[in-house]
Design brief:
The chain has 366 residues and is an alpha+beta fold. Helix content is 25%, strand content 34%. It has helices at 42-50, 92-102, 107-120, 136-148, 166-183, 194-200, 218-223, 228-233, 268-275; strands at 4-13, 16-26, 31-35, 57-62, 65-66, 77-80, 154-158, 186-191, 203-208, 211-216, 240-249, 252-257, 263-265, 283-287, 292-295, 304-313, 317-324, 327-334, 344-349, 355-358. α5 links the parallel β7 (154-158) and β8 (186-191). It starts with a strand and ends in an 8-residue tail after the last strand.
Length: 366
């Protein structure tokens, strides 16, 4: 196993800058996710860690050992791709054993190692089966086993579950986390799916346009987003954003929606934060749907009212779209909450979970 350190990593493809300047550290035995939309630089980063691409600038370290210039085959890295790329004409056993046979390991050692990995992946009963007869789900497990059996220092996974059906993706998220915990392997997982990253990773690097936006634990990323991109990308449904300005009314500092429908009194701490920030006339109030609560009638704790615009019943909850002034806010309500479209509802918010962002930059004001 090994820790990973990236120092000011940059990658250019001609005039295109795929990665601008990435610095982060992944601890020995940690499970880290590189998360972001297509084209954000996450797969390029993984390819440079693996040695499949050389950085334009910056350095890569495994532990204290510099990796720049070290060929991919000598880095001790296991790689699992999206398309699994197994040998369909060979048995499951021979697929998993392939790397060990190339290294001319003893037959008894090969059988022992393959059996251990197969049991870990619940493939023990399929070892004699031709791999071409497997389901897509089991093919991906075979691809995982073929890398695991080599006992790499670092495990890299590039969206390995994207071809799997939804139910099996859910199952494999739990399985991969269990396997990583059992073998205590340093893993980097590339994905555009924030649910995969949040449910499995110890640390998440959120990326966009080749720039690292935030790196931290799932709780840190979710509860303390550093900008509107992270706040929008993480969470389902994503955070509500309300353009507003800061005003003082009768000595009380407030955030006021630009159409004037929403007024939000601020505590002294938030007033001081905004007072020290230039651009109080361009602010964005953010609050996640689960920290809003609906009331059928006027309520002492309700701050705003609006009309029900649409409903999304999701089984475990109902997403209520409420039109407040010119804004459509999403509210995560209980499953049995089904207000009729067009009726008025009153909205209560949790002040502990408000976020204020600078309108010009999207950066959080803390």
């Amino acid at each position: 196993m090994s820790s990973i350190r990236l120092d000011n990593l940059r990658k250019e493809f001609g005039p295109v800058v795929a990665l601008k300047s990435l610095s982060l550290e992944i601890g020995d035995g940690e499970f880290a996710a590189l998360l972001g939309p297509s084209g954000c630089g996450k797969s390029t980063t993984m390819n440079m860690i693996a040695g499949l691409e050389m950085p334009t600038a910056g350095s890569i370290y495994f532990g204290e050992r510099p990796m720049n210039g070290v060929p991919a085959g000598k880095r001790g890295v296991g790689f699992v791709f999206q398309n699994y790329a197994i040998f369909t004409h060979m048995s499951v056993f021979d697929n998993i054993a392939f790397g060990l046979k190339v290294q001319h390991k003893a037959e008894a050692e090969i059988r022992r190692e393959v059996q251990q990995v197969a049991e870990l992946l619940h493939l023990g009963d399929l070892l004699s089966m031709n791999a071409g007869r497997l389901s897509v789900n089991d093919m991906q497990k075979v691809a995982l086993g073929r890398s695991m059996v080599m006992r790499p220092r670092i495990f890299l996974l590039d969206e390995p579950f994207s071809n799997l059906d939804a139910a099996f993706r859910f199952y494999m998220r739990g399985e991969l986390k269990r396997i990583q915990r059992d073998i205590k392997q340093t893993m980097i997982y590339v994905t555009h799916d924030q649910v995969e990253a949040m449910s499995m990773a110890d640390k998440i690097a959120v990326m966009d346009y080749g720039i690292l936006q935030q790196f931290g634990s799932p709780d840190e990323i979710y509860n303390y987003p550093v900008n509107t991109f992270v706040a929008r990308f993480i969470g389902s449904p994503s955070m509500n954003f309300i353009p507003c300005s800061y005003q003082v009314e009768n000595g009380q500092g407030c955030l006021v929606q630009r159409q004037g429908t929403i007024r939000l009194p601020l505590d002294e701490r938030r007033q001081q934060l905004i007072a020290g920030h230039n651009g109080g006339d361009q602010l964005i109030l953010g609050i996640r749907p689960e920290y809003l609560r609906l009331h059928d009638q006027s309520h002492p704790e309700a701050a705003w009212s609006g009309q029900v615009y649409a409903l999304e019943p999701l089984g475990s909850k109902t997403i209520v779209h409420l039109q407040v002034g010119q804004e459509i806010l999403q509210v995560a309500a209980p499953a049995d909450c089904r207000p009729a479209v067009g009726i008025t509802q009153w909205l209560e918010y949790n002040p502990a979970h408000l976020h204020i962002f600078a309108g010009a930059t999207g950066q959080v004001i803390r």
